[in-house]
Amino acid sequence: MGEAVAASDALIVVTPEYNGTLSSVVKNTIDWASRPREAASIHGKQAIVLAASGAPYGAEWARKDAVRSLQIAGADVVEDTFGIGASYEAFAEGRLVDGEADAALQALVARLGAPVAA
Q1: In this structure, are residues 65 and 73 in contact, taking their beta carbons and an 8 Å threshold?
Q2: What is the pLDDT of residue 115?
Q3: N or C end of the chain: smaller count of CB under 10 Å?
Q4: Which residue range or ranges hold the NADPH-dependent FMN reductase-like domain (predicted)?
């Protein structure tokens, strides 16, 4: 897994929100990519965070926790995140039904490769 992270140009970290935080599988992946600390494959890697929740507030807590974990691990995280609330209603045929949300998601992904403000 560390080799895959090291070989990537950037990271798109996607998580569901479970009990108000990111998935333990996603958190564990971030943790493994941050070790060994002196040669962490995640260090300096640009990343964006996307999350979904069945609740209406767009997985806000999961996104904040994912950003914090990535920053502590040494990733260069784009501050803006993307969240989907009421995720069970947000998709049809594998696509976002809200055109504005889809455009916002596309714009965020397009920011990968651009300098991240410190």
Answers
A1: no
A2: 72
A3: C
A4: 3-86
For the chain, the residue count is: 118
Residue 76 falls in which region: left (phi positive, over 0), alpha (psi -120 to 50) or beta: beta
**How is the chain split into domains, by residue range?**
2-110
Task: Identify which of 73, 82, 75 has the alpha carbon closest to the alpha carbon of residue 49.
Answer: 82
DSSP-assigned states of every residue in 80-114 = --EEESSGGGSEETTEES-HHHHHHHHHHHHTTTS
Tokens representing 31 are 């943790």
Please state at what angle helix 24-33 crosses helix 60-73, rounded to 10 degrees: 10
Which CATH fold topology does 2-110 show? Answer: Rossmann fold (3.40.50)
Strands (E), the chain: 11-18, 21-22, 46-52, 76-77, 82-84, 91-92, 95-96
Torsion angle of C-alpha atoms 10, 69, 80, 2, degrees rounded to 10 = 10
Q: Give the pLDDT confidence score for residue 2 in this predicted structure.
A: 82
- Please identify which residue in the block is written with the tokens 């560390």: 2
